[in-house]
Design brief:
Layout (H helix, E strand, L loop, with lengths): L21 E4 L4 E4 L2 E2 H7 L2 H10 L5 H12 L6 H9 L6 H15 L8 H26 L13 H10 L5 H14 L6 H11 L4 H12 L7 H12 L5 H10 L17 H17 L4 H13 L14 H12 L6 H21 L25
Antiparallel strand pairs: 1-2, 2-3
Helix pairs in contact: 1-8, 2-16, 4-5, 4-6, 5-6, 5-10, 6-7, 6-16, 7-8, 8-13, 8-15, 8-16, 9-10, 9-16, 10-16, 11-15, 13-15
Length: 381
């Protein structure tokens, strides 16, 4: 009798490879990028420094950072062919579909796409990192009937993106909060989109194909699309005084409560606390009292009370408060996941490079347990 193999749905608990890029510790609820706690990086670093760290393994010296920033800033312009393709896409297309298509066009237009030398890999990574904000910014503007805003080379990565999106210099606090969100999104071990990108990389496919695959996985509501799903929940609840009643009904219907819980963290997502603090800072700086933040805080308080989630308490994750910040900045809900993609891109590229440089990389090919019909003949045979 053949023994039934142990099936781990979603590969839960299955260790498939090694990495030196990041570490998620479920016991201590910590997240490390190349050994550095994400809280320290968010407090002390820019997104550019974190991207450099993920790609090179060490934080840049002042000279290295200046050279990196100069190169990145010189590559920010949206390629004409990419703009033409974006213009041809219907406004009904999801913004993540636009991002996915635009990255494919960049890859198809790159004569060095198949060159996997370390120098070429780094060049491609920096170019894509520099150009992705222009894609997202222009797509948002065209949906509003607005013209393309050319990038500036005297602004930081995040400040320039906000400038290209809204055609005005961003407030320092707002730009800083956006930068923090990018750092918090930059890397998170073998999450669904990163794992997808790694599987594509294992076939020796090109960088752009791996990133496009990651984008496709990130679009899903259970992954990057979760920040959009949280906003839909807020819309459904309406006001803070209705949070408890909504949660009672949702649990009775056994609905998934988007924005709460995490596949890895057993307690509080360390990124969520930082995002919550940023939400308060942004709204205070803008002089805005947003009922949405009141609603989010009330729903969190109710969910964390002793009346709910007694078997395993579910804490807010990074997606729960991110939407509040992005909405306050002026981003529509459908643009939230593309913002996540901008942040996660350095992580995808770091994993692609790590696998390219690993001589022991093998093609991803898990096994299955077949539960279909037994062998049978075609009718009449």
């Amino acid at each position: 009798m053949t023994e039934t193999p142990d099936i781990r749905k979603g590969l839960a608990g299955v260790v498939v490879d090694t990495t030196s890029i990041s570490k998620v510790n479920a016991e201590t609820n910590s997240l490390l990028y190349r050994g550095y706690p994400v809280q320290e990086l968010a407090a002390k670093c820019t997104f550019e420094e974190v991207a450099y760290l993920l790609w090179h393994g060490e934080l840049p010296t002042p000279k290295q950072l200046a050279e990196f920033e100069t190169l990145e800033r010189s590559l920010r312009h949206l390629q004409p062919v990419v703009k033409r393709v974006i213009d041809e896409l219907p406004l009904t297309a999801h913004p993540m579909d636009v991002v996915r298509t635009a990255v494919s066009v960049i890859g198809a237009s790159d004569p060095d796409a198949a060159d996997s030398s370390p120098a070429s890999n780094l060049d491609k990574s920096i170019r894509l990192y520099a150009q992705l904000p222009a894609i997202v910014a222009y797509d948002q503007r065209r949906r509003r009937g607005l013209h393309l805003v050319e990038p500036r080379d005297d602004l930081s990565y995040s400040a320039n993106f906000l400038f290209m999106t809204f055609d005005e210099l961003p407030d320092v606090v707002v730009a800083s909060a956006f930068d923090v969100s990018m750092i918090l999104y930059a890397e998170h071990s073998f999450n669904a989109s990163t794992f997808t990108a790694r599987v594509v990389t294992s076939t020796l496919s090109d960088l752009y194909s791996a990133v496009v695959a990651g984008i496709g996985a990130l679009k899903g509501a259970l992954h990057g699309g979760a920040n959009e799903a949280v906003m839909h929940i807020f819309d459904e609840i309406g006001t803070a005084d209705k949070a408890e009643g909504w949660l009672d009904a949702a649990l009775a219907e056994k609905r998934k409560i988007m924005g709460f819980g995490h596949r890895v963290y057993k307690n509080f997502d360390p990124r969520a606390k930082l995002v919550k603090e940023s939400a308060d800072e942004v709204l205070a700086e803008l002089g805005v009292h947003d009922p949405l933040l009141d609603l989010a805080k009330e729903l969190e308080e109710v969910a964390l009370s002793d009346d709910y989630f007694k078997e395993r308490r579910l804490y807010p994750n990074v997606d729960f408060y991110t939407g509040v910040i992005y909405k306050a900045m002026g981003f529509p809900t459908r643009m939230f996941t593309p913002l996540f993609a901008i942040g996660r891109l350095p992580g995808w590229l770091a994993h692609w490079t790590e696998m390219q440089n690993d001589p022991q990389t093998k093609i991803g090919r898990p096994q299955q347990l077949y539960i279909g019909s037994g062998e049978r003949n075609y009718p009449g045979v």
